[in-house]
Amino acid sequence: xxxxxxxxxxxxxxxxxxxxxxxxxxxxxxxxxxxxxxxxxxxxxxxxxxxxxxxxxxxxxxxxxxxxxxxxxxxxxxxxxxxxxxxxxxxxxxxxxxxxxxxxxxxxxxxxxxxxxxxxxxxxxxxxxxxxxxxxxxxxxxxxxxxxxxxxxxxxxxxxxxxxxxxxxxxxxxxxxxxxxxxxxxxxxxxxxxxxxxxxxxxxxxxxxxxxxxxxxxxxxxxxxxxxxxxxxxxxxxxxxxxxxxxxxxxxxxxxxxxxxxxxxxxxxxxxxxxxxxxxxxxxxxxxxxxxxxxxxxxxxxxxxxxxxxxxxxxxxxxxxxxxxxxxxxxxxxxxxxxxxxxxxxxxxxxxxxxxxxxxxxxxxxxxxxxxxxxxxxxxxxxxxxxxxxxxxxxxxxxxxxxxxxxxxxxxxxxxxxxxxxxxxxxxxxxxxxxxxxxxxxxxxxxxxxxxxxxxxxxxxxxxxxxxxxxxxxxxxxx
RNA sequence: GGUCUCGUAGUAUAACGGUUAGUACAUCGGGUUUUCAUCCCGACAACGCGGGUUCGACUCCCGCCGAGAUCACCA
Length: 479
Known about the structure:
The protein is mainly alpha-helical. The chain has helices at 21-32, 53-64, 87-99, 110-122, 186-196, 212-221, 253-258, 263-271, 286-292, 307-325, 327-334, 347-357, 366-370, 382-387, 396-411, 418-432, 436-448, 456-463, 465-478; strands at residues 4-7, 36-39, 103-105, 146-148, 155-159, 163-167, 176-178, 201-205, 228-232, 235-236, 303-304. Strands 3-4-7 form a three-stranded antiparallel β-sheet. It has a two-stranded parallel sheet with strand order 1-2. It has a two-stranded antiparallel sheet with strand order 5-6.
């Protein structure tokens, strides 16, 4: 039997790191088993519907490289993929239940139900609607809530992550199938859709674990086979033990994209949060994840989201792309991340800059703050010089003469490249008798006025003879 | 309150009855002719508690404690 998984978000806003994992795992398992991933939009709650949310979801999935085989945009044999467009289908299935006596119209006003519920909480007993089931419900018609008629019993089932499960009758109730507004509830719609679409693995957050017995009863009443259940533990917020949500400031996945996180790193980090293959590998490509992923190694407990590790992983990916695919490949990812002043510089120059700064980037957006001085004349800030822990050991006169000697030596250099520059630098060291820390700090600051920068010879090579010398001269004059 | 789930260093995890409890991030120290970073080396740091079972328990069983989920005409 071929595997069909699905990601079924409701369009109520952006996707954040707390909930993308329920897209990643279904994707991985679908690809590994050469099956299908369906994207289905669960938009039956009109009150919570957010305009544009579907597009946001699609963007997120595309950015992460999680292509879906059926769903919005791509279509498929089970269209439509928006639940709001499938009302007739749910009605048809609901009729079967009514005909077999397993569903009935609920005439109880919400206030009355609320009163029942309050009474139960007061008595510290669980509230079960079926205990208040009306004896002679009216004939159901659109505009009334339709309830399932539960036939509570013991259920045993297997969860691919949590293991063997069982539940007694006490958790099964007459759940609402169709709401007053004619839309189905999640509880009913997802079962119908999963069955119609041939979904084999129902993968979702653990919060659905406790309602599974109700679903089981529904599958049975509908004469449908049970799919495989896969409960995904929560991702926990950095503080506390609650699942990560928007309230905790969970950023949208696309926000990370805009902050310069690579999709490879994001996917890698998220996939490995709460899952591992038993080896000590940390960095996985998408293909490697597809190969080694397995449901039974998904963690059963929640995992805390750790942005620091994400950042580390992003750095690993940045370097990996540079090392394996070259500057060009990394440069292609950086287009939106250069400082504004870089706009007028050509690609070649920016590639050179990139190739000497890339190994100190944590995110692509670090480029903005780290590379200014390659594109505009730095403001001379003598404090930076005099307060530097090495340069401050030198007197003003020494600084002036060191600068002059450096200018003289560099001016006469014919081959302006990293190797020859290093040669000059070494000669200067010997001639002046200064420590590298003193001389190099001085020159470094004089040409960049940045808190840190790449190796001196590389910086000078990229900057070029003219800029290097004119900056040194400017500082010499300013002293 | 009922039901269910979970519990290894600060964090993410390995171990599937016998190891000095491994790895990664973080932290701290050191090295690579300046800085920042990379890279390399090193250090610190964990089996929630209590009972069993066993020659031997992180691993199996029970109890406790702690944390979480759920009990909507939300998904």
